[in-house]
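Tutorial handout. Part one gives the primary structure; part two gives the three-dimensional structure as tokens.
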Amino acid sequence: MSNENPLIEINHLKKYYSVSNGIFTNKKASLKAVDDVSLTVWKKHSLGIVGESGCGKSTMGKTILRLIEPSGGSVVFGGKELFHVEEKRFMDQKQLRSLRKEMAMVFQDPYGSLNPHMTIGDAVKAGVLRHKIVPREEAVEYCIEMLCACGLEKEAYASYPNEFSGGQRQRAVIARALALRPRFVVCDEPTAALDVSIQSQVLNMMLDMQEQMEFTYLFISHNLQVTRAFCDEIAVMYLGKIVEKGKADEVYYHSIHPYTKALIASLPVSEPGRKKGERKIINSIPSMMDVPQGCRFHTRCPYADEKCRTEEPELRQIEDGHAAACHRA
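Part two.
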């Protein structure tokens, strides 16, 4: 992808929270939700972020968009610096508001994302009018077109969220995000709450829309199988760190990090007669307030040795375009 231009450049991104150590103490602990993450998201491509619940995926997505204020690092969007914490440079709120239409987010819970007292049409139209996507007199027709493009009937415009199924609500949320004609869309577990049959419909619709309107997706999911099918590249996240990244098929079929291998081995086998990989993972995920020294995965890795317990591995290139943070790689 060296001949293409990046849309998003994320450098050493951090998001820390100060959390109380207990009820009877004033001492604070640092919860490192996102800890020194660097990624590049290429124009018109999809980057998948995969990991267990609580690893920092959603926090990272919100921090990139400055829906959550960062603790460190920098993000450049389309050549414009959103922030650089160490150098105390932050895009001012007026500029950021004007840029919001280019950066959209699809949240995990479609019902919680919609105001139950607003019709679907009003929810979609609010952003369209706010950012002057089309002239006011054309807004209703434009919003109906977007809802239809996302697989809903034109009658959906005057309907309320409680009249829809989960899949229909998610389509409405996606229509609301894409109606702004953004360049970059963060999808936070967009199909996690949906039935498997509906998941494939929604994902195929999102891919069709990407082809038509040339969106760039950051796709956050715990399902590596779905992410491989949807994304061009995958980054695997564990306890706030990226532990492996590369082209989707490379990460899925030729994984390097023991954590990635464990995630793949835990997937159900859909082909009769195919042997399921051995799930080589032990213990439970540690607390983010008590991150292990050395390699963060060593407390669950069956291959860990003394070096893993004392030295934190760097994310380094193992093959062309394929990187992993593992001493054994």
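Part three, for discussion. The first strand starts at residue 6 and ends at 20. DSSP finds eleven helices and 13 strands in the chain.
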